[in-house]
Amino acid sequence: MSPDPLPAVHDGLLRDLDPVVLYRILALRSEVFVLEQDCVYLDPDGRDAEDDARQLWIADEDGAVLATLRLLRDPDGTARIGRVATASAARGRGSAARLMTRALELVGDGETVLEAQSQLADWYGRFGFGRAGADYQEDGIPHTPMRRPSTR
Protein backbone atom coordinates (compact mmCIF):
# COMPACT_ATOMS: atom_id res chain seq x y z
CA MET A 1 0.00 0.00 0.00
CA SER A 2 1.46 3.37 -1.01
CA PRO A 3 1.39 6.40 1.29
CA ASP A 4 -1.29 9.01 0.82
CA PRO A 5 -0.34 11.50 -1.89
CA LEU A 6 0.64 14.98 -0.83
CA PRO A 7 -2.17 17.53 -1.01
CA ALA A 8 -2.09 19.63 -4.17
CA VAL A 9 -0.72 23.16 -4.34
CA HIS A 10 -3.51 25.50 -5.47
CA ASP A 11 -3.18 29.03 -6.76
CA GLY A 12 -5.54 31.70 -7.95
CA LEU A 13 -6.34 35.35 -8.26
CA LEU A 14 -8.56 36.92 -5.61
CA ARG A 15 -11.45 37.41 -8.06
CA ASP A 16 -11.40 33.69 -8.90
CA LEU A 17 -11.24 32.29 -5.35
CA ASP A 18 -14.17 30.60 -3.70
CA PRO A 19 -15.16 32.86 -0.77
CA VAL A 20 -14.77 29.97 1.68
CA VAL A 21 -11.21 29.33 0.49
CA LEU A 22 -10.35 33.02 0.80
CA TYR A 23 -11.85 33.08 4.30
CA ARG A 24 -9.70 30.08 5.29
CA ILE A 25 -6.55 31.66 3.85
CA LEU A 26 -7.15 34.92 5.74
CA ALA A 27 -8.05 33.01 8.91
CA LEU A 28 -4.76 31.08 8.78
CA ARG A 29 -2.79 34.28 8.24
CA SER A 30 -4.52 35.85 11.25
CA GLU A 31 -3.93 32.74 13.35
CA VAL A 32 -0.20 32.77 12.61
CA PHE A 33 0.65 36.47 12.43
CA VAL A 34 -1.87 38.06 14.80
CA LEU A 35 -2.51 35.37 17.41
CA GLU A 36 0.71 33.29 17.52
CA GLN A 37 3.15 36.12 16.86
CA ASP A 38 1.12 38.78 18.69
CA CYS A 39 1.34 41.28 15.81
CA VAL A 40 -1.79 43.37 15.86
CA TYR A 41 -2.21 44.80 12.36
CA LEU A 42 -4.73 44.80 9.53
CA ASP A 43 -3.67 41.85 7.39
CA PRO A 44 -5.84 42.67 4.34
CA ASP A 45 -3.64 45.57 3.22
CA GLY A 46 -5.09 46.06 -0.25
CA ARG A 47 -2.33 44.16 -2.03
CA ASP A 48 -4.33 40.92 -2.13
CA ALA A 49 -6.85 42.70 -4.37
CA GLU A 50 -4.31 43.84 -6.97
CA ASP A 51 -5.08 42.51 -10.45
CA ASP A 52 -2.16 40.09 -10.63
CA ALA A 53 -1.85 39.15 -6.94
CA ARG A 54 -1.94 35.38 -6.55
CA GLN A 55 -2.81 33.34 -3.49
CA LEU A 56 -1.15 29.95 -3.18
CA TRP A 57 -2.30 27.38 -0.66
CA ILE A 58 -2.36 23.75 0.35
CA ALA A 59 -5.51 22.33 1.92
CA ASP A 60 -6.29 18.99 3.51
CA GLU A 61 -9.02 16.63 2.32
CA ASP A 62 -11.60 18.57 4.37
CA GLY A 63 -10.63 21.91 2.82
CA ALA A 64 -8.77 23.28 5.84
CA VAL A 65 -5.90 25.49 4.64
CA LEU A 66 -2.63 24.06 5.94
CA ALA A 67 -0.25 26.59 4.40
CA THR A 68 -0.44 29.70 2.26
CA LEU A 69 1.57 32.48 0.66
CA ARG A 70 0.85 35.37 -1.64
CA LEU A 71 2.70 36.35 -4.77
CA LEU A 72 2.63 40.00 -5.80
CA ARG A 73 4.14 42.15 -8.51
CA ASP A 74 5.74 45.40 -7.33
CA PRO A 75 5.31 48.55 -9.47
CA ASP A 76 8.78 48.04 -11.00
CA GLY A 77 7.84 44.51 -12.12
CA THR A 78 9.73 42.68 -9.38
CA ALA A 79 7.92 39.65 -7.96
CA ARG A 80 7.29 39.79 -4.20
CA ILE A 81 6.53 36.79 -1.98
CA GLY A 82 4.87 37.42 1.35
CA ARG A 83 2.42 36.26 3.98
CA VAL A 84 4.00 32.80 4.09
CA ALA A 85 2.13 30.95 6.84
CA THR A 86 1.73 27.33 7.91
CA ALA A 87 -0.77 26.03 10.45
CA SER A 88 1.00 24.92 13.63
CA ALA A 89 -0.27 21.33 13.26
CA ALA A 90 1.08 21.14 9.70
CA ARG A 91 4.61 22.44 10.28
CA GLY A 92 7.63 20.33 9.45
CA ARG A 93 5.97 18.52 6.53
CA GLY A 94 7.37 20.57 3.67
CA SER A 95 4.20 22.49 2.82
CA ALA A 96 5.84 25.93 2.82
CA ALA A 97 8.71 24.60 0.68
CA ARG A 98 6.23 23.25 -1.85
CA LEU A 99 4.48 26.64 -1.95
CA MET A 100 7.80 28.45 -2.42
CA THR A 101 8.78 26.09 -5.22
CA ARG A 102 5.47 26.69 -7.02
CA ALA A 103 5.67 30.47 -6.52
CA LEU A 104 9.16 30.52 -8.02
CA GLU A 105 7.95 28.41 -10.95
CA LEU A 106 5.28 31.06 -11.57
CA VAL A 107 7.88 33.84 -11.35
CA GLY A 108 10.25 32.06 -13.73
CA ASP A 109 13.63 33.69 -14.19
CA GLY A 110 12.59 37.13 -12.91
CA GLU A 111 13.87 38.90 -9.83
CA THR A 112 11.99 38.08 -6.63
CA VAL A 113 12.10 39.79 -3.23
CA LEU A 114 10.70 39.06 0.20
CA GLU A 115 10.93 40.30 3.77
CA ALA A 116 11.91 37.24 5.82
CA GLN A 117 11.56 36.86 9.53
CA SER A 118 15.27 36.76 10.31
CA GLN A 119 15.24 33.31 11.92
CA LEU A 120 14.06 31.98 8.53
CA ALA A 121 16.66 33.73 6.35
CA ASP A 122 18.74 30.57 5.93
CA TRP A 123 15.62 28.61 4.98
CA TYR A 124 14.81 31.13 2.23
CA GLY A 125 18.45 30.88 1.16
CA ARG A 126 17.73 27.30 0.05
CA PHE A 127 15.54 28.83 -2.67
CA GLY A 128 18.26 31.14 -3.98
CA PHE A 129 17.50 34.20 -1.84
CA GLY A 130 20.30 36.28 -0.38
CA ARG A 131 20.35 39.15 2.08
CA ALA A 132 19.51 42.45 0.39
CA GLY A 133 19.97 44.93 3.22
CA ALA A 134 20.21 45.44 6.95
CA ASP A 135 17.95 43.62 9.37
CA TYR A 136 15.12 45.66 10.84
CA GLN A 137 12.30 45.27 13.37
CA GLU A 138 8.67 44.97 12.32
CA ASP A 139 6.05 44.45 15.02
CA GLY A 140 8.84 43.47 17.42
CA ILE A 141 10.12 40.69 15.14
CA PRO A 142 13.53 40.88 13.42
CA HIS A 143 13.21 40.84 9.63
CA THR A 144 15.73 40.52 6.81
CA PRO A 145 15.16 41.92 3.31
CA MET A 146 16.02 39.22 0.77
CA ARG A 147 16.39 39.06 -2.98
CA ARG A 148 16.62 36.31 -5.57
CA PRO A 149 18.25 37.83 -8.64
CA SER A 150 16.93 37.48 -12.15
CA THR A 151 18.58 34.74 -14.18
CA ARG A 152 17.83 36.48 -17.49
TrEMBL record:
It comes from the Bacteria. Residues 12-151 form the N-acetyltransferase domain. InterPro entries: Acyl_CoA_acyltransferase, GNAT_dom. Pfam families: Acetyltransf_10. GO terms for molecular function: acyltransferase activity, transferring groups other than amino-acyl groups. This is ElaA protein. It comes from Jatrophihabitans endophyticus. The lineage of its organism: Bacteria, Bacillati, Actinomycetota, Actinomycetes, Jatrophihabitantales.
